[in-house]
Structure prediction request, 425 residues.
Amino acid sequence: MARKQKVKRARGTSWEPKIRYRGDRCKWMVDLGTKFNPRKLYFATEADANTAAEEKRAEYLDRLAGQKQAAKDKVVFNWHNLTNGQQNEIATAFASANGDTARIVRALTFYNKHTSSADATRKLADVCEEYLSAKEVSGKRPRTIADAKFKLKPFIEALGKNNLAEISTADVEGWLNGRQSSPSTRNAYRRAICGLFGYAVKRRYMEYNPATAIESVTVDQGLPAIHTVAQVRAILRAGSNYVPTRYVVQARTTNRKVSKGAVLPITNPAEIHQARSMIVPYLAIGYFAGLRPENELVNLDWKDVDFTAKTIRVSPATAKKRRQRYVDMSENLIRWLAPYVQEQGKIGNSRTILLAVRRTSKVDWSKDVMRHSFGSYLLAHNEDAPKTAMQMGHSGVDVLFNHYRNLVKKSAAADYWNIVPDGNP
Prediction:
């Protein structure tokens, strides 16, 4: 007797929904197993159950056919299906990689990763403009924005016309090396560029930051410049004795151009006092309270100077870290401020007067020299690093120990805090 030949069926096509009557629910149930969700359907009549079962089976077969077609579409690459031009391009790429197919795969992977987004075609100059606008909207201080503009301007002039996807780590590093800047300046430019590309990554304009792979240059940190007790006395004496001047025209030519003039001192006591009030409090608070001159000191209001509690309040709006702090007022600082105290209004300062005072005192000047002097003499005087750090607005004592420790002797610190006005200014 001949064996009955089995009919070969595609895998899964023999699946059928199961139909049975559920007495507990008084309904006909169609059990779909794991092929659908929900797995079980209920109907009032057997005919409705049979119809639903047929529809679900047909749906399942259609789905199965679609999966098989998708598998067929993933046909293995066939060389003979390519045109001659495509074959030549592949052969050229193969030769360029010296037969290393792994290099070709890595190159294509890199290209697809960094050019998959339409935003990667954005011009660097446009993204930089958007980045600076975002800083303004986010409430960054004007000085911070101006500093970012200054450092990014030459970089944008060199590479601004390029798309983001075209800029590599080598491009950024080459630009930095070409400037031949000092190590600290180079690091500052690198930080600004990192911020720009970091913004682009956050906005998903590009996949990675090409500047982060560039190592910062190691900089030997030197000790901060401070003034000696004699130099501080000389500067404060020059400020308290400052006399403003006025240019007086003495003669003119026929066409009204000045032919002769003279710089004469002002003799009005009110004007002299007004001019000195623009420099003496600025210098005294800088030397004996250590406020940061670029933001905290120039924006300090007289209402934040409390002579009763003997403290100066640095508001979050002016503090570097946007945190409020109180700085103790020394007795000599109170004596320097007493003649100029007001109920409210900016402490005030004048670059012109400061330049004249520096010229008169013949003392060399450097950035933050008043704050550095304050921290150094205060630490030597009280020998209390945490308290000194708190007065200066540092989050820890590391900065003090790295930059201010052992700069001055205790005897010099005692003289520093005894610098007082010579009589009545």
About this structure: The first strand starts at residue 18 and ends at 22. The CA atoms of residues 336 and 421 lie 6 Å apart.
